[in-house]
Amino acid sequence: MGQNLHVVGNEPGERADAARNRRLLLDAAEALVAEQGPDCVTMDAVANKAGVGKGTVFRRFGSRAGMMRALLDHTESQLQNDFMFGPPPLGPGADPIDRLIAFGRARLELVEVAGEVLRAADSSTELRYIHPAYLLCHAHVAMLLRQAEIPGNVDLLADALLAPLDAGLFMHQTKARGMTIEQIGEAWEDLVRRVTRCSG
Where are the transmembrane segments (predicted)? Predict the structure, then answer.
């Protein structure tokens, strides 16, 4: 993977105590999403969950939108760490196709948690495909395709495989079509296996 790609994480120059407080608040927000869904993540709820005053949350993030953007960065960072350094099948050590399938399923779980924020972030097509998070995911998928010795233009194939993991499409499938994340994950695995079998 390109060494110039930025991994989403703590803010540059952030003090250790500020970073700890930030992580405490984001862990609380992430737990609320897992327990009650993203619509229940309010500044009050996060403050209560983290055991701090509401003013602390406002000072740290400014608004609910700012908090949700920070949560997105937080979850992106966790996913990146897992697929680069975590245990298999998502992390190194597994068959590249198994890693690719695990990546898609993990990406869908992230979209389920932060879909509305991701969809808003994806609204600018001009910037979307040069965002560090997309570039890193693209590089990872392309690397796995090369390791699996899939012929052809793997960069274009990586774009095609990332398209079904789009936040806007996921939100449409779950909200308008009533599909579950399990169904979408199964379809992702089926797509990967068909594409790699036909290309191999």
Answer: none
Q: What pTM was estimated for this model as a whole?
A: 0.73
DSSP secondary structure letters along 99-119: HHHHHHHHHHHHHHHHHHHHH
**pLDDT one-digit tens code per residue, 144-158:** 999 999 999 999 999
How far apart CA 28 and CA 23 sit, in angstroms, is 8
Tokens of 92: 């190194």
In the chain, domain spans? 9-62, 67-199
Structural contact between residues 21 and 160, judged by C-beta atoms closer than 8 angstroms: no
Q: How far is CA 181 from the centre of its chain?
A: 14
Per the CB < 8 A criterion, the answer to whether 61 and 70 are in contact is yes
Which CATH class, in words, describes the domain spanning 67-199? mainly alpha
Q: Rounded to whole angstroms, how far apart are CA atoms 170 and 159?
A: 16
